[in-house]
Amino acid sequence: MGLLDKAQEVLAGFDSTKDSPNQPLGLPSGQYDVVVNTIDHYVSKGGWDGLRIITEVNIGDQVGTKDYNMFNFDEVTSTGKQVPDRVLSGHIKLVAKLANACGVTLKDEDWEDIDHLVTAFNFGGAIGKIVKMDLDVRENKKNPQYPYKDYDFEPTEQPEPIEIDDANLPSNMTSATPSNGNTNDAAPLDDDDLPF
């Protein structure tokens, strides 16, 4: 792609008389089919820790684009300010919606802390699931590089698993096991056979 092509792509919908050139990268507001890539307990270099969710768009114009979000369940900020109840409630509801979309049933003990939630999602089969994600992105005037994001998740149909048997393999492939089934008949390797 040449410079002209890239400029046309980047400037489509950009108004240089009023739009900021520092708009955040990432997914714009919209509805997406996404794959749940990561759900983990992440600690940033600055020491802020929380539940991290990474999804990746798998269909459409934004295919391959990842969305990152991280939040915690602390009731008090690092500066001692009370976190508004609506914020904490919103985080809890978001986790419940994502669990439902992934087919994960959260038990009371899963809500003990972030690590228990991570375990429930990872062992519950959430990673690799495709879900519908409704994303609303709003400007953050104090920190434009970190826009406000509101999410909603819904379940969606999962693709059929691919089943492969020997009949699906090319005819010129051979088994690593000798035809007599004895794996002890393999030729021994010497140093000249190694690539290093």
Overview of this protein structure:
With 196 residues, the chain is of the alpha+beta class. Helices cover 19% and strands 23% of the residues. It has a five-stranded antiparallel beta sheet with strand order 3-2-1-4-5. A hairpin with an 8-residue loop joins β2 and β3. The radius of gyration is 24 Å and the shape is extended. It starts with a helix and ends in a 41-residue tail after the last strand. 12% of the residues are buried.
User: How many helices in DSSP terms?
Assistant: 3
**Coarse morphology:** extended
Structural class label: alpha+beta
Instruction: Flag low-confidence runs.
Output: none
Strand order of the largest sheet: 3-2-1-4-5
Total strand segments: 5
Q: What are the salient characteristics of this protein?
A:
5-stranded antiparallel β-sheet, alpha+beta, 196 residues, single chain
What secondary-structure arrangement, pairings included, does this model have?
Blueprint: H1 3-11, E1 30-43, E2 49-57, E3 66-71, H2 85-102, H3 114-123, E4 130-138, E5 148-155
Antiparallel strand pairs: 1-2, 1-4, 2-3, 4-5
